[in-house]
Structure formats: structure tokens, C-alpha cells
């Protein structure tokens, strides 16, 4: 039931993502509120939920009804566990701890993210210990071309995600350095017009990124993450049966569900962020697409 719900709910919520500004990052409310949490701490809490849930599911298989439902941890599921944990080691710890600053996030965003990651980590971990995965891995994964294609896509997506996030981190580092220099030597404009200074600092903090896929799209970090999880699903699970809706719902496995959920829940956010860039920066490249090069 939870697997099917996790498959159905994200697509149903996709249209709303194009109209709602989730209150975190550049869309954090400007007013102070007890419901706004520290950006770095809330991000770490939210993202750590996924690997913790995965490890718990691998160890205790909470959705299994009998010992027959529990498959042994062979080399294949251990490999995919390592890939999952590698992604979240960067996402939950390395990246936020290297971030100079991060905008506050509303508690609703943090709680929603924790819930999503607990469900996803549990489903992925349970799948890797399931008879379905055991049967899929019965054929040596190295003998399947889809495995090598998937692993290559995962690696390319992971590296691309890190590279493009690093560009954003450098923008924040530069903004922080400028802020420190300004604090040591305040200009007459800074002392006389705090509101205009605040707007200028915001533009610096969110300046136009350049390089790599930023030449073509506003959110290459999202695009690379989709490639990463598409590759993971291609290597770790059988292709779903798309002959009918009922066949699709019954056959789609958690790695594919996770990929679909990522796209459905992030594409609207990317669109809203792209529109924000266009409004905020008059010189923003008009030929940049949102998140898929040359397409959208």
C-alpha cells in the first residue's frame, strides 16, 4: 500500500508545485517567525532521515510479514546500498557543512522532507532485502548491459550534481567575503540606506551562476540528480510494465518510484526558481531553459 501511495501521490501534487512557493531558500518569508528553522541544521536533519531509514529497513525489514520475505544481503544489494549512502553522505553532511550560509526553512518544509525521506529510505531498503530484488539479482548484474549503463549514468549524475552545487557554493562564499569586507569598511550608502543594501546583498547571494550545464539550464543540479537516480533505478530494478495503468502500478519498484517522485516534486520548484531568476536579474540569459537542456 505504501509503495503504491508513494507512486501515486507525487504526480498528483505536481501541478501545485508550479503555483506554490515552498518557504525555503530564495522563497523563505522575510518576516521573523518561530516556525523558521536554521537552514543548515534543518537541511541536515531532513536529509539524514533517508540513510537512517534505509539502514533500519535493511537491518529489520519492517514491511516483511515472514522470514521468507527477507532476502540475504549479497554483493548486488550491498553495492546499491553503498551508492545510496554515498549520495546522502554528500547531500546530508559534506555539502551543508561546507555551505557558508543557507536561508532559513519553514518547519513545514523540514517535516515534509523528513517524512518523504523516511518513506523513501524504508522502501528502498526493504526492496533491496525483498524476494523481488533477490530474483532480479539472481542473474549476475555484471552480465546485464542495463547495469553498466545505469551505473555510468549514476556516476555521471553524481559528479555533475556535485560540480554544479559547487558553483552555487562559490557564489555564497564570494557573497560572504564581500559582506565581511563591507562590515569592516561601511560605505555612506550602506549606513544611509539599509533596505537598498539588503536588496543588493540578496542579489549578490543569488547571483547568476555560470559554467558547465548552467550554460543551457537554470537547474543543472536538479537535472544531474535525476540522471543519477534514473541510472540507479535502471541498474537496480526491472523496468516497470507499462502495458496498462494497473500493470504499471503493480510492477513499478521503489527505485523507479523514487526517480519519478524526484522529478514530480522538483520540476515545479525548478520552474518557479527559473521565473525568479528572470524577474530578479534583467541580464539573465533568456535562452536558458529551466531544467532539461533544449527541452524545458
Automatic annotation (TrEMBL):
Q: What is its main location?
A: membrane
What domain of life? Answer: Eukaryota
Q: What are the protein's UniProt keywords?
A: Membrane, Transmembrane, Transmembrane helix
Which InterPro entries would you find in this protein's record?
Answer: 3-oxo-5_a-steroid_4-DH_C, SRD5A/TECR
A Gene Ontology molecular function term of the record: oxidoreductase activity, acting on the CH-CH group of donors
GO BP annotations of the record are: lipid metabolic process
Q: Name one GO cellular component term.
A: membrane
Recorded family membership: Belongs to the steroid 5-alpha reductase family.
Query: What organism does the UniProt record list as the source?
Result: Boletus edulis BED1
Give a yes or no for keyword Iron-sulfur in this entry: no
Which parts pass through the membrane? 34-58, 70-89, 109-129, 141-163
Report the protein name in the record: 3-oxo-5-alpha-steroid 4-dehydrogenase-domain-containing protein
Question: Coiled-coil stretches, from where to where?
Answer: none
- Decide whether keyword DNA damage is in the record: no
Species lineage:
Eukaryota, Fungi, Dikarya, Basidiomycota, Agaricomycotina
Q: How does it sit in the membrane?
A: Multi-pass membrane protein
List locations, semicolon-separated: Membrane
- 3-oxo-5-alpha-steroid 4-dehydrogenase C-terminal domain: from which residue to which, for each copy? 107-178, 198-296
Amino acid at each position: 500500500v505504501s509503495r503504491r501511495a508513494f507512486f501515486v501521490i507525487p504526480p498528483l501534487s505536481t501541478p501545485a508545485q508550479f503555483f506554490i512557493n515552498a518557504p525555503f531558500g530564495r522563497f523563505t518569508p522575510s518576516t521573523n517567525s518561530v516556525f523558521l528553522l536554521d537552514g543548515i541544521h534543518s537541511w541536515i536533519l531532513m536529509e539524514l532521515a533517508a540513510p537512517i531509514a534505509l539502514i533500519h529497513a535493511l537491518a529489520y525489514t519492517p514491511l516483511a510479514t515472514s522470514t521468507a520475505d527477507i532476502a540475504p544481503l549479497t554483493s548486488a544489494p550491498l553495492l546499491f546500498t553503498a551508492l545510496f549512502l554515498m549520495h546522502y553522505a554528500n547531500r546530508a553532511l559534506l555539502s551543508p557543512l561546507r555551505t557558508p550560509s543557507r536561508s532559513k526553512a519553514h518547519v513545514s518544509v523540514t517535516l515534509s522532507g523528513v517524512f518523504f525521506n523516511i518513506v523513501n529510505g524504508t522502501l528502498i531498503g526493504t526492496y533491496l532485502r525483498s524476494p523481488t530484488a533477490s530474483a532480479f539479482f539472481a542473474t549476475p548484474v555484471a552480465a546485464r548491459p542495463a547495469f553498466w549503463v545505469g551505473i555510468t549514468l549514476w556516476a555521471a549524475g553524481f559528479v555533475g550534481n556535485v560540480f554544479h552545487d559547487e558553483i552555487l557554493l562559490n557564489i555564497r562564499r564570494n557573497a560572504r567575503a564581500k559582506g565581511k569586507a563591507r562590515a569592516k569598511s561601511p560605505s555612506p550608502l550602506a549606513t544611509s540606506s539599509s533596505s537598498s543594501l539588503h536588496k543588493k546583498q540578496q542579489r549578490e547571494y543569488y547571483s547568476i551562476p555560470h559554467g558547465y550545464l548552467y550554460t543551457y539550464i537554470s537547474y543543472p543540479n536538479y537535472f544531474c540528480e535525476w540522471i543519477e537516480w534514473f541510472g540507479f533505478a535502471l541498474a537496480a530494478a526491472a523496468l516497470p510494465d507499462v502495458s496498462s495503468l494497473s500493470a504499471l502500478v503493480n510492477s513499478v519498484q521503489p527505485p523507479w518510484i523514487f526517480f519519478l517522485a524526484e522529478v514530480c516534486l522538483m520540476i515545479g520548484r525548478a520552474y518557479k526558481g527559473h521565473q525568479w531568476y528572470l524577474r530578479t536579474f534583467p541580464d539573465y540569459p533568456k535562452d536558458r531553459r529551466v531544467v532539461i537542456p533544449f527541452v524545458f
